[in-house]
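Box S2. Input/output pair 1.
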Amino acid sequence: MDCPAVYLREYAIDDLDRLHALTWQPEIYEFLPGWNVSREQRGEWFVHYELEENARFIHAVSEGGDVGGLRLRLGIIEKSSDEFIGWCCTGVKEELPVPEREIMYAISHKHRNNGYTTQAVKGMVEYLFQHTKIDSLVALAHIRNAASMRVIEKSGFRFKKKIKIEDESYHYYNMSKPLSRPREDGRPV
């Protein structure tokens, strides 16, 4: 998925070390607890779950777009350096009623405040709405994570309510797929 200054792509095996290093940045694990696991655990998840599920998601898209509960995990790559600088993912949020599909993301502290995350989220949303049967998405931001709230709002999500998950408070946002309007000749736009 091509965006102005970054692009999104499926994880590659060579991304493992960079992904692992990013999960240990305090600015990331503060709001994504449980992501900063050992290198061995990250490798196990990466190889046996994340890469395999990405392949199943992409296959489901090629077969008509019914991705069900599959997750998609993409790397955010800075175009000018071709560096893996973060991730943008989608999956059904287990703590929310089905079928609440969430958009989640993180970016290296070195690459914040450049609009990269907003570009990535917008790219992911556009891809999901154009190529899958997904018609609504949610995004969550911890109430202390003002930067994430800005990304979500700039990406077009609308604040709906505050919720609690595991005794932590979050802002809950959602977005629906735009309805296509018929053209004057009656065909969809």
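Box S3. Input/output pair 2.
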Amino acid sequence: MSDAEHTDTEYIVEYVDGPLTGTSERRLLIDGEVDERIGAVAAIDGLESLFWYVAGEVRELGGEKYVSYHFDSPDSDPVESDEEQESL
């Protein structure tokens, strides 16, 4: 796949807040568009949870599309460590 084909079909997700702050991943464009809302499963302190993120700023850098995603706390699983749950 050439670089042009690669950048036309993919974009880079940047998690800017919430439990996945500072991480990123590549995703496929659907009909040339980014996902407005994405779900991510991650283990935080050994507890697997589903976190929802909403698209924000879109920018181009080095010929690639970057999209900032913001944490949607009300729709996501609560973020608690095993220690917090044991003390309840």
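Caption for Box S3: Strands lie at 10-15, 24-28, 37-44, 47-61, 64-71. DSSP finds two helices and five strands in the chain.
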